[in-house]
Structure formats: C-alpha cells, structure tokens
Amino acid sequence: MKEKKDKQITMKSTIFIKRSELRQQIDLKNYYMGESAKRKDIDADTIQSGKDDEELLYMLIRKGCNELVSAVALRFPYISFEIDDENILFTFETDYTPQAHLLPLLQQAIAEYIANETGMHWLLIRRPEMAQTHISLRLGLYENVQQLFAKIYNRKKTRRRATDLAGI
Amino acid sequence: MTTATFDISRENILKQLYVDSAYAAQAREITGVPEKFSKLIMITEDEVSYFDRIIKLALDECTTALSLYLGRCSAKKGAGSNTYIAEIELPANYPAERLQTLAAIIESIIACRCLQEWYLTTKPEEANIPTAKLRQLKERMRETLALRKRPVKE
Hints:
- The structure holds two protein chains of two kinds.
- Chain A contains six helices and three strands, in the order αβααββααα.
- Chain A is of the alpha+beta class.
- Chain B is α+β, with helices and mostly antiparallel strands.
- Chain B contains five helices and three strands.
C-alpha cells in the first residue's frame, strides 16, 4: 500500500494571468472611478493610475498574490505563485487532472480578486474614502476562488451547524 | 512622466495687455471718467520694461502653482528676448491634444497677473477685477490639468 502511495502521480496545473491585461483592468477601473468623482471634486484625478505608477502597482499586485496564495495554502495542498516579465503564474498540484471547464473560471476569479485587492490598496493610499466598494467586494471574491479550489480538489465546503455557532 | 516644453511668447502677453487696458480705458471714458484718470490704466510701449520683471514673476508663480499638482516645473528665458521657455513634467496618461490649451491658459494667467499688478499700482480700487479673473483662470488650469487619457490595451 505504501509502495502504491509512493508511485502516486501528482498533476501540476498552472494558471497564467497576463500582467498587461491585469494592469489594463486596474487602470480602466481607476479611470472611470476618477472621471465620475471629478464631477464633484476635481482633485479626484489623483486616483487615475497610468504608466508612471507601474512600480507601486506591481508591489501591490505582488502583495495581493501573496495574500491569496497564503490564504488558499492553509486549506489546500501545494500552491505557489511566480511573477515574470509577462505573466503571473499560479501553480497547484492535484492527484488527477482538474476538470477542464474549471480552470478558465479559476483564472478569471483569481484575476478579479487580484485586481480588486490592488485597486483597494491603491485607493487606500490615494483616497481612502473611496476604497469602501473594494473592501466590501473583497470577501465575496475570495470565496469565489476558494470554492473553485474546493471543487477542483473535490472537497465539500465545511458548513457549521447553527447549534455550533450558537455554542449550544 | 513626459516633459512638455512650452514657448511663452512675450509678444502675445504684451499684446493682450495693450488690448485689455485700452478697452478698459475707453469704457471708463464713455462712462464719464475724465481722460486724465482713465488714461492711467492704459498700457503703452513705454511701460514694456516695467512688465519684463512682472512677466518673469508671474511665470515663476505659475510654475509654482503647477508644481503643486505635477512633477518638476521650471521656466527660463529663451533664446532672444521674445520668448520664455516653460518645462513641465506631465503624467504619461495626460492627453497630448490638450497641451495647446494648457499653453494658452498659462499665457492668459501671466497676462492677467501682469494686469493685476498694473491695476494695483495705477488704480488699486479696481484691482479686484483682474484678481477675480485670475482666480477663474487658475480654476480652468486646474480642470485642464485633471484631464487623463482613457487607458488603451497595450
């Protein structure tokens, strides 16, 4: 039985997220938020990010990836991330090939989480009062990622019974 | 950041001053102000040397105001006696088609500031008029600086 276990093959899957697309998503959201806020307060142009803010946004993207991977790694087996010149790569291992239809969903969910997280930290630096929407979306986007990982690893989400929560 | 260089034409500024002050003097004559008083506010070519100092002062004030919102801004005298050169660091996502508008507003601000200084010297009781106009121009400049290009897919 032990021999069988030693010969168990693990499948490595990698999710690629293009850095330029992620940046474009973040810049576009910041642009529209800025345009809307400028109707009331002209100084809202400070939230509109561009090429000049690449260094700071890269730091915040890295921070977001680290937070996501740290949180997911607590509940699921091996997962890591790496950032190269063009892509952000999330690599995870499963005992079998994940269902093909789940990987694009996971890719989109991770991209949305990272974009929201980066946008939130950006606004907390530039105009903290405008970060409320991002903060409120955070948990929901993280749960999306977590539930997809749970589906890939074929695990059910643990639900606590009401009596447990009440401490009865 | 991209650096934009503007040529500020001393000639254009002086023309604005001649025209604005001439119309103001004419308007006062029509309303019955004696000619010896209305002519005080009229700027002629004899006053040009006075305005050289004021134009440089106004340009420095303008670049200081710009640097509150932007990166590095500086101004210096250009080659020859008729231009000043202003170098302004603008964000990379600033729309290039708005640079001409920004240059025109900067010239108007300098002319208005010179007129304000002139009124404070010759007719202080009426200096609030160019002061109000200067405030409006600065707000317009701020609005123009707040423009950004929509991000495009790389």
